[in-house]
Structure formats: C-alpha cells, structure tokens
Amino acid sequence: MTDHRIDLDEREERPQLTRSAALSDYLAGVIEDTEHLVFGNPRGIGQAARLRLKDVWIPQDVTVRDAGTARAEASPAQRRVLDQDEPIQIDAALNMRIFRKAVITGNPGYGKSTLCARLAHKHAVEANQQGRGWIPLHVPLRMVNQRGVWSSLEDLLHRLPQIHDQAQRTAILDANVHGYLWIFLDGLDEVSTEALSELRRRMEVGPLASANRVTLTCRTADYWNARPLRRLDGTPVLELSGFSEDELDLYVENWHVHAGAGRTAQIRQRISRTRRLLDAHGDLRELAESPLLAAVVCIVESQPREARMGRAALLRRAIDHLLAFPEWRRGGGRDLEQEQHVDRDILRRIASRLAFRMLTEEGALAISRSDVRGFIAGQLVEQNVVDGSDEEDLDEAKRAYFDRLVGRSSAGLMQERETGWYEFAHRSFQEYLAAQYLIWFAERPHRLRLAGRTEWREVFGYAASIVQVSGQGAGDLLILVHRLLKDADPGLRPPDDAEAAREVAERACLAAEMLAEFGVDAARQWGLADALSGTLEPDTDDPAFAGLWPYAVRTVLRLAERQDLPRLVRMRALCAVSRIDDPRLSTEPAGVVARLMEIPGGRGQVGTSRPLDMREIKKTPSSPPLEVTVRPFRMAGFPVTNREYAEFVDAGGYDEPRWWSGSEASRWQAKDPSLHQELVELWESQKELNFVKEFSEAEFAAYNADKSTRIARRTMDRDLPLYWHDSRFNLPTAPVVGVNLWEAEAYCRWLQDRLRSLDLIGPDEEVGLPTEIEWEWAAGRRWSGTARAYPWGDEFDDTQCLVRDFTEAEPRIIHFGAVPVGFTRIGLAPDGPEDLAGNVWEWVSSLNYPWTDPRDREARGGLDKRVVRGGSWYSRERLASHVSFRVEDPPCNAYWDLGFRIVVRRRL
C-alpha cells in the first residue's frame, strides 16, 4: 500500500489571470475579511486583537464519502485511493480536477466555514501576489432564507457585501466566463425547506454547470437526511474529519503560543495544563475534536478554572466567557467605564430564552437584528430591569444588552453572519442554553411534546447535566423521566402502529439516557437516594421518586428485548440500560464463574474446505479440515466487559508485575524504552498490513502520517486500555477494547488468582485465553455431530451478529462501537457462548502457524503474530463471522474493535 495522501503533483494547473485595479481591490478585501479567526480569539473580536488563521489553524483531512463523478474522471492511482476509503489532505483533494465540484460535509463545529475562509484567503493571496490561481467568491447560503434565491450570477454579486462596486462585479463576471472563479457555497444545511428546491435548481444550472470550481459545505446529518433532500446527485462528497489527538495537541500549542501575552515559561505551563485537562477527561478530548470547541477549551483553560470540569461545565464557562467578559477585548471596543451596566444573570436568562425560542420555531438558527432587539426589550420589561414606559432608558438598556450578546462589548455569544442576521457561535451553545430554559422555565406539557422531537435529544441530555450540577429542577426532570417511561411500561399494551411504538420506545430511551446523565452520585447528593432502589412503580406524587432507577432499567430492558422494534432502537435501549445499571451481568466472582459454559471435548473436525475470500491485504488463510482431539473446557458466555475489566484496573493490575508473565509483557508493563523502539520498528514494518481499513479514520491516519514519533500512546505510554475514557467504547457492559494481547493475558492471570483464592476454581484449573482450536470448536459446535458454519447455523444471518450492512456495494457501519454483550439473543435462553460472531474481534492465544505445522502454536512470548477471531462491528469482511475465518495481529496492537474472552481448563 502506498502513502495515504493523494500526491500534490496531481493537482490542476492554476490559470493565468488578467490583472486589473478592480480585481486587486476585491482580492485585497477578501484577504482582509478572511485573515483572522472568526471564533476563538482570547481578546474579543477587534481586528487588532484577533489571532491570524494561518498561525493557529490545523487543516483536517477528508474522506471520500461518495465519489460521484470523480470516480469516472480519476486516474488509476486516484481511483485506488478512492476505493480504499483513505484520508486525503484537504488541500490536495480540492486542488485536483476530479474534485472541481465537491461537497464538504462535517459535524457541527468542525470548521466547515473556517475551511472556506482559509481557502478563500489562501487563493486570494496567491491570485493577488502572483497573478495566477482562482478568484475566491464566498456565498453564505443562509441569505436565501431572507432574500430569496438569486436569479443570475450578476444578481448574486449585487447581494454580496464584500463586492463594493460595478467594476469589481465586472471583473468577477469576466473571470466567470473563463472558469477562473472558486465559488464557496457555505451552509447548505442552513437553507430553509421553502427555499431549498429553488436553490438546488439554481445551483444545478448555475455554478455546478459552469467551468468554475465549486465547493459546498453542509452538516453531515443534514446532507444525508431525506427530509428535505439536500443531496446533489453526482457531486463528490468529502467528509471533514475532526481533530485527531495529535492535531488537537498541535492546535493547543499554536493557540497558546500566539494568544499568550506572558513569558515563554508561562505559555508552556498553559499548554501543559490544557493537555492535562484533555488527557484527564476523555469526554472533553472527544468534544474538542470539534475545532470550535477546541478553541473554547483553550480560552476557558487559560483562565482560573474549577477543580473538576465536564462537558456541561465547559459549555457553561465558555458561554460566560462569550457573554460576560468585555475586559478580554483589551480596548477593542468602547470605553468600558462608560458602558451601560449589564446584569450577567439577566443576560444569561435572556440568552437562554432566546435560544429556546429559536429552537422551538422549527430549529431556527438565524434571527434578524430587529427580532433580537425586540426580544431583548420584551425580556427587560418582563423581568423589571427597566420601566417600559421610559423609552430612553429602555433603548439604552436594550442597546447595552444587545452589544454584549452579539459581541460588540464582549467576545460574543452570537455573531453576525450576514448583514442584519445573527446566530449563536455554535449550535452546542444554543442547545445548552435551550436546555437551561427547558428544565427551569418550560411548562411540563411543553417538555413532553419536545421530547418526541429527534432534534431535541441533545438538549434533553444537556438538561440532565445542568440539573446534575445544580440540583435545581431535579424534581421536574424526574417527573418528565417517569412520564416518558410510563408510556412504554411493559405492563401496558404497546401501540398497534409500528411508528407510534417506535416513537414511544425512543422517548423511553431518552428518559433512561437522562437518568444516566444525571447519575447516581447526583441523586444521592440532592436527596434522591430512594430513587435508586426499590421494586414498586414510582409515584410522581412521591418527592423521593422511590424506585425510579430500577423502574427505568426494567422498562427499557424490555424494549431491548422486543423483536418488533427496529434494531437500532433496541440497541439504543440496551446501551441506555448499560449506562444506568445493566442487571444481567454481575461482576461478583461467583457470577463470573456462573456464566462459564461447559464445552464438551472429543474427536472432531476443525477448519473448512470452503475458500473464505477477504477484501483486505491482511490475510490469514482459512485452514483446510483437520481432525483434532479437544479436552473439555469452560468458556465465558460473553467477552470480558468494561465493568469486569475495571475490577482488574481498580485492583492495581497495571502496577503488579506478577500478572505480566514473559519477557515482552513484563517489559511492556515496565515501559522499557528498548521494547518501545522494537515496537516502533514493528509498527513501521507492518502497519500497511495491520491497519488497512483503520487508516481511513483520522485517528489512525495521524499515527501513519507522523511515522514513529506519535505512537507512544498506542504502544507503550498508558496504564489503561487505549479507549478507556472514550464514551463511544466504554459502556460498562460492552466488551472492553483497546487491549493488546499482554493486557488480556495479565487480566486472565489476575482473575485466576482471584477465583482460586475464593475456591471458585480448583488448584489444577487455569484461566486463560482460548486456543484457536478451542475457539473454533466452541463457535462451530464441532463436538455435536452437527457442526455449524456460523455460531447459529449454516447460513449468514445479520440478525444474529453486529457487523456492517453488506447489502450495499460499500459496507455500512450499523452502530459505531460495540454494543453491550448478549444483544443479539437478549431475552432468549442461552444457546452456548454468545457474541462469538460480530461486536468485537477476540484475541486467542495461538500463533499464526498453519494447523498442520509441527511447531508449537502455543509457545509463549515473542512478537510473532497471534490469531484473532469472530469479526466485529467495524470489519469490512463479509465472511468474518464464519467460524473458520482467521485474522492475525502482533501482540502489541490495540484496536477499538478488538477484545477477548476467557476459558477455564484443567492443566495437562
């Protein structure tokens, strides 16, 4: 496999421009308008105080989500990159002819608009200084909501404030004739339903049909949602990545270096402090994958901070900064001594009510200047800040609060995106503020109605976080939770209509997720400990809400068991139960032993005569049939879960050398630098085999791009599983992932010692990983006389395992991350060990030798590859769930879809 970047030499040749004074003036204006960060400046938004984009920004990669017409136009080398679904350097991709027309999608706050600004600035500088390249034209698409769709390019140019006179319009129209424009159509997701159809038609006959370069941006979810349709048939789609760990670290360094006003030592302290905060809180590091919120982390962390900070606290402090610290402007605005007094509590309340109002009005993102001012005036009178009959006082107060809200005398929670139209700096801020109003001020029936709207799911999660911190509104929160659960009570007759049943189930899932977000510690802290236990249905007249947590678990667990509900809803239900308290799996040693299943021994056949084809380079041939004799053993019913592995972590397992047997394992536990160097060399020599599909993800691509200097996190410098703090992979009863072979074996030795000390296994029994033959013997029921090709039978059945959807040309991920163990057969009687196919790959102890090889396949130690089995939610292999399918990995590797399970066997 070659490098994971498209060669810059394949870029399209830049055109030679005809210079004119009007064009130079226009390009100079673009350069001035796009030179600085729009958001993330430590000292407000005054021109002199802002950070330069090129000093701070870290361009992300993109992945081709839909090649569209690019595939037909691509060279053979480019086509290979498209087919391998690998990350591409954004500048390299957009400079290529095959992406002359392209849509950039990304999650909220991932920097789509900043990308447009950066590219516009780059090409304006190039065109102005060298007289070559493309002339950038930035079009914020939200403007069509107020002014309608343009009828022609000339009409569009008259609407853009950055174009000042007819001479500039003429220069741009002339460039359009030659195809020299680079048009950035920014914010397709912000176009109203009413304007969308006409805008699509105008783009298809206008910019998309022209010889110009065109780059559109849209939120990922909005682009692929069919209600309404925003997709543009045939136009390539490039998915923008968030910051990888390394990119985030570099962004933090750049920001503090260029924002800091202190000495070098102080700046380094701030960099170190911010990185420690991100390392200590996995949820913040995940949140900071968003470049906008990475800036918030830097801004907030550069100030005195709370001892503990989570997601809700970060947003609260960020909002306080954006609203309430005019001193950060350092002279960027009017004299602060002369500024009208603004009550910060009133200002926050106004922002909260405004955010709620905008979201309830069909998810409005933008609001006019006059509406903002009118809303502020109404709130000031309603809250008795000023006397409404005194027009002069009201006008002065309205101006002061408006200036603070939109950044004229603060950093700015809202920003003017188009003349006279304002929106929140990020939707997360709007959703957090709406959550404040939802839980503290909204009427109960209104809350109940909003709970049925999918777009409010995040808001309700924030609401639970807010209540967790303050305790204010806890009663109302739990009343809402109870009502949503009551509708889905397993004792009630479910709705006959499938869609109604799905909606009721999703509302109950939301209730459980809110309880999980609120948490048991907060329940105890705020006098609600009785809600954590009990068996009776909770009574909403009971101020203690006795039994609410168990009631939520029972109700939502029953939803996970209902086969008539959509699979994704059932997965969501079981994930919510796992976050609260999954009652199915005790971590008590006796419970661990009780879940062991007897696997009879005997003489039988393993392997297969059927060729098992693979898509990827990482191939381990399936074994031809082989007669083997297997001794009886016991196998765990499920892979080891995060909750079970936490017992090992809490017992100091990573600090106890006796669990780490063998040269490599003990050196890894001791963080031996010489082993680190060996692992670096191993990585470099085998990465193209071991990380084929993973390099399509920005996280893995960063390791590849940075060679050996950035792999310490993965290979050595950790005392926890690699994804231990990552909310995508750390559900308590989901399989533990991100563990290498040595970690899995250390857990087995610790567990063996624990079970022996309690007389739960005999002194002649050992706990370990299954051998490859034991794993296949159990998965395929080889002892039974009716051997199976899959753990459930002879035909593939995607309802029996969590794998990708292989019905489409490009296998689609069903659920990003493993789900709690036992999902596929939840509610059914056990039929042997479960999850042997899909969910996560599983380490086995065997070396990857052919089964007929006389060498010892169970030899301990060394860096030779070991076998992994079973397939996963992330695997691209259609046949990975076949019981004879084999893949190999070096013992040091750790992945987000690789775990393990235990066996107990008698010693020979």
From TrEMBL:
Pfam families: FGE-sulfatase, NACHT
SUPFAM superfamilies: C-type lectin-like, P-loop containing nucleoside triphosphate hydrolases
UniProt domain NACHT: residue ranges: 102-258
Domain Sulfatase-modifying factor enzyme-like as annotated: residue spans: 596-903
UniProt-recorded name of the protein: SUMF1/EgtB/PvdO family nonheme iron enzyme
Source taxonomy: Bacteria, Bacillati, Actinomycetota, Actinomycetes, Streptosporangiales
